[in-house]
């Protein structure tokens, strides 16, 4: 581990890292998720959340998912945060990638860790599960353009004249007079 990982609590082997990662990313996307309810619905007693269960549970939570295999060099172009599969089968979250450093969150350690590129390559299998909320996708589609500005200007074009009259004349009678125009 990187210098920040030394002296930390030991990883917990009893924690279901797949379930923990899914719940964390659901909450990141402002989606309410109960670990107990998801575990009850999608896995048998004693089993752990794996990729198929994560994909099904995320769909129920109205989250868009995509499982893929990629290389560490492609991570800066990948939408993050995402769930990553470690070589030992556990799951963790890749939160951010900056040049040669990667910020991850391992649910077993219950805190973020900064890894170098070499440490990430040694730990990560290359598998990712991308998770995005449907509302964030709708926000990308409805980006600001001048037609929305023009619509607002036309809708409220009388308002500045009303405010100017009230401020200049220091009276509410002007407001009453101008409010009849609306």
TrEMBL record:
Taxonomy, superkingdom: Bacteria
Pfam family, one: Peptidase_C39
GO MF entry, a single one: ATP binding
Record domain Peptidase C39: where: 10-131
Coiled coil: none
Cellular component terms (Gene Ontology): membrane
CDD domains tied to this protein: Peptidase_C39_likeA
Gene Ontology biological-process annotations: proteolysis
Protein name: Peptidase C39 domain-containing protein
Record organism: Pseudomonas gingeri
